[in-house]
Write a structure and sequence with these properties.
By secondary structure, the protein is of the alpha+beta class. About 30% of the residues lie in helices and about 20% in strands. The longest helix has 26 residues, at about 135-160. Bound molecules: 2-oxoglutaric acid and fe (ii) ion. Its cofactor is L-ascorbate; Fe cation.
């Protein structure tokens, strides 16, 4: 290894900047209390989405044992011999399950990940790893629960945007869920601290479980990286590209990255929630007017996969930029 390769560029160093309190924390249990309390929680969620694009949720109804079970299933999978995991390796982004050890961006080399569809579970679970034997059941339980939470949050945001909680209800109900299960080694001296390069997520909402600190988000007010400090038993939520499209830019997607933790190896599990594969997302008519003309071309998850496939070597794969209409 040359000396040069041991010098970590400044922009790849983890941020020391803990997200300054108050990082919004939403008590999701309050959504189901009386209408006046629900209205306040809807307002808090919508404000967090508009101002920051991310927040944490507590009292979300997913039990500790379901979360622990999924983490155990993920850790046990990543401990399997390479040959077993590589059965799932593929460059075909349309495979129902994909395993890889590094991204093609040349930055995030140390992450191992497994991506698979999860909704409807009965359709996809047959493709999931059979080893470890707990994987399908435990990850399936977590995926089902986390999707319930995503739908609940989506309804609240639609309500907060003035579209009504049942806006395009069937399309959300029938939408896809992609689980991105990530395993990062402990940071080792001299290596890049970046575990996953900056990106925004496809879909409306990502709900992320993280076993310890490592996620960073761009704070758009200061245009700097902020460390997300996970609260016990909380889940992190951030907005994806299609939320920006649907809201016609009222809510913005969140650029985020993962850095390696200097104390421990890390597991994260992201549930990415969108419309079905070929269902196009466009800006809500109700949010388009003369002052706010339509800003984005309609697109589907299938279009996103096409875009990724033709931009595999692009370090800044920015799907959303490709949708922005001229002059918008
Ligand atoms: O590991 C993390 O904290 C982030 C994971 C992530 O951004 C993703 O899987 O899209
Ligand atoms: Fe992400």
């Amino acid at each position: 290894m040359s000396d040069d390769s041991r010098t970590v560029p400044q922009e790849q160093l983890p941020s020391d900047d803990l997200h300054p309190p108050p990082m919004p924390v939403i008590n999701l249990g309050h959504l189901n209390l009386d209408p006046a309390i629900r209205a306040c929680v809807v307002e808090d969620i919508t404000k967090a989405c508009r101002d920051l694009g991310y927040f944490q949720i507590i009292n979300h109804g997913i039990s500790q044992s379901v979360m622990d079970g999924a983490v155990d299933a993920a850790s046990d999978f990543f401990k399997l011999p390479s040959e077993t995991k590589e059965e799932f390796a593929s460059d075909d982004l349309r495979r129902p399950v994909r395993y890889d050890t590094s991204s093609k961006d040349g930055i995030s080399m140390s992450r191992a990940y497994l991506k698979h569809y999860a909704h409807p579970l009965s359709e996809w679970v047959q493709y999931w790893p059979e080893k470890p034997p707990i994987y399908r059941e435990y990850m399936g339980n977590f995926a089902t629960e986390v999707r319930r939470v995503a739908l609940q949050l989506m309804e609240a945001i639609l309500e907060g945007l003035g579209l009504g909680k049942d806006y395009q209800h069937e399309k959300f109900e029938q939408g896809l869920q992609l689980m991105s299960v990530n395993c990062y080694p402990k940071e080792s001296e001299g290596d890049t601290a970046i575990g996953l390069a900056p990106h925004s997520d496809y879909g409306f909402l990502t709900i992320l479980f993280t076993s310890c600190r490592g996620l960073e988000v761009v704070d758009r007010n200061s245009n700097s990286w902020k460390v997300v400090q996970p609260l016990p038993h909380a889940l992190h939520v951030h907005v994806g590209d299609h939320m920006e499209v649907l809201s016609n830019g009222k809510i913005k997607t969140v650029v985020h990255r993962a850095v390696l933790n200097p104390e421990e190896a890390r597991i994260s599990m992201a549930s990415i929630n969108g419309f079905a594969m070929h269902e196009k997302v466009s800006s809500a008519r109700e949010l388009v007017n003369e002052q706010n003309p339509e800003k984005y071309t309609a697109s589907s998850f299938n279009d996103f996969l096409d875009y990724l496939t033709s931009n595999l070597d692009n370090k800044h794969r920015n799907f959303l930029e490709s949708l922005r209409m001229q002059g918008a």
